[in-house]
Description:
Layout: H1 2-42, H2 47-50, H3 85-113, H4 116-129, H5 131-140, H6 144-159, H7 168-171, H8 181-187, E1 195-198, E2 202-205, H9 206-218, H10 220-225, H11 231-247, H12 249-257, H13 261-281, H14 300-310
Antiparallel strand pairs: 1-2
Amino acid sequence: MIGASVKQVSKVSMTEARPAQAQHRAGLASTALGLIAAAGLMAIASPAFAQTAAEPAEASPQDAAPLVDAPPVQDPGLAAYDPLEGFNRASFGVSMGLDRAVVGPIAHGYMAVTPKPVRNRVSSVIYNLGEPSTALNDVLQGHPKRFGVTTSRFVINSTIGLLGLFDVAAGMGLQGHGADFGQTFGRYGVKPGPYLYVPVMGPLSFREGVGRALDFATDPVGIIGGGYTTTFGATRLGVGVVDVRARADGAFRALDDSVDPYVTARSAYGQYRESFLREATGEVQALPDFDDAPSTSSEAPSAVTTSSAAGPQ
């Protein structure tokens, strides 16, 4: 009788616990989905545009994108092909409204109560957790040296650097770089396709959209940690969103001050992705030499041609 009662009580307890566990998982999933949506906002502050928010001496490795407005290489600019501009503008407006109402105030509060040296350490940890994903794309792109640097950085900074709090590897000459599936596709000739602004994912092209989905699905740290529906995954994503938004605060203010924030964000994103692709292909843009004053003689065209052929001195 007693044994039967104990079993019955245990069964009731387990039955009551299951809905609670299900609710907990559903709550984490909802939180993660919301954070992923917020993360889409952050993509408009591409490293090329977010440079206005950071001091050069404190710029993190993922912000070290070239800022030269060079012409695209074998890759049409994203800003030149925007057939869904009406939809994209509406999505951009919704995202910016969400930033002003939710994400921005949270980031401002974080900046107000957290000293900049502490925020820099948080940024370093977040960046370090993304290194395995970068290493994966280094392999897929056929860059063994870059893979070796990325792997070494992750090992060194995760151990000597105290889980990425300090970028010890950079002091050893191992500088960080970025890589993702959108860049990998571009390296092998996949065209960007139309520009899109998706509320959940932010600004992207069709190529970058597929790439970003693969980035989430194949992230080694995310897979080991159980994905974004776990406490670790949701916390990592949430902290990452706030960190990026805080570092890009100046860029967001510049957007508000621009004549057309949508065009400004689209142009900055397109220029950054073009520069990012050049890092993978190894192509370098030849810049004109502005040192020589223009000549008024009849032989000016020939002289300019010769100077261009010779390349920069």
